[in-house]
Amino acid sequence: MLLWFVIFYLMISIAIGLYAATRVHNARDYIVAGRSLSFPFVLAMVFATWFGAETVLGISATFLDQGLRGLISDPLGAALCLVLFGLIFARPLYRMNLLTLGDFFRVRYNRRTELILSLCIVVSYLGWLGAQMMALGLVFNVLTDGLISMQQGIVIGAAVVLVYTLFGGMWSVALTTFVQMIVIVLGLLYVTWLAGDMAGGFGVVLERAAADGKLAWLPTLDPIDMLSWIAALVTMMLGSIPQQDVFQRVNSSRSERVAVWGTTLGGAGYFFFAAVPLFLAYSAHLIDPDMVRRLMAEDTQLILPTLVMTHMPFVAQVVFFGALLSVIMSTASGTLLAPSVTFSENVLKGFWQDMSDRQLLLATRATVGVFAILVTLYAVTSDATIHQMVQSAYRVTLAGAFVPLAAGLFWQRANNLGALLAMILGLGTWLLLELFGTAGIVQPQIYGLAAAALGMLVGGLVGPRNPHWPQAGHHHAAAATHHIPSR
Question: What is d(CA 360, CA 26) in angstroms, rounded to the nearest whole number?
């Protein structure tokens, strides 16, 4: 019976997504929903940016093991990324009226920068989207009591997400996410209320968590500990800013005001609501410590699903798994669309100069299908956990793309030479340390970020200013750009 409820919910999601496809008439509709989304839709989409499998199944288990100190990158770093993007980056980028971040790198620098950084952005999504597909497989495996294997569940889940994303693009992402966010908030709050009551009350759960040291999150005064804490925060906070899914949600807004505040408040909402899975996880520890101890040794991703299946009534099971599927699908759909759009607009279109709008739309849809297949194969064959897949997702963009984006927006002397040096030094340093370096307190991508900043500084001071960007860094110059400049 529970499985049939889930199947019914999946069919509703597909129907909403296919209905949204009727609003797609050109590539701009498909990629940024015609820049017509109102505040509630943008808020819901931004909230769903990272409220996915990692938040519900990944960081909740990390919280049981390491407490809040293990969650500096997510949700703290992830939420700060969205708030910073809304307050600092959203306004100038929205005014430029571009389709992708890759377009910004071409307009601000050149085709070479666009191509390299667009490929970096595409690659960074492999682990994140793979984690969502793996979580879908896990849900189907749990719901059928092992009748559907993890691998088969991954394929089924990927097919569902592909269907409505393929046809509706950003319109499908917007409408399905809006409905799914309602299910997520109401569903998880209901299950949390039940779990808290079973654990002895909300006050008891919080008191026990504090006494267990789980609520301590600040670093000690030890310099090494502080450096490690800052490195974990910076990787997610800054490395996630040059991401197409975040930019695409902002750029789909109907106005600049919606873009700024929808993103900012969506990030704040994500931070506070991410506490719900943490409360659920510690409640599980109090309700059934033996079960939690066993799954911590076997598969931490199963703690919350097992708690719901073994200790909660049927209605709560329906609500939880409906919310969990909403969490995963809302993140997966946007995460599938973002790299596909980047590849078609900034890689394929660069080699096919006279591509028409219709051809771009067809190429983007084809790329969505191909990327879905590749990620599904990766998720099916990978032995990594959801948490492990997500961990490496934003290292490449932190080392390679953040400095060219930030400097390009806010430093007048940022130029082609600076962008080239930033990419070579940032990505080169990160890769060398990642492949041949020894484990240390500071992770390789932080050295890559510092090297990229040095490269941009040297290039900007030594090289000539870009002739096609005479007022670089001035927001009014960006505001005057109402079309996508040609290659």
Answer: 9
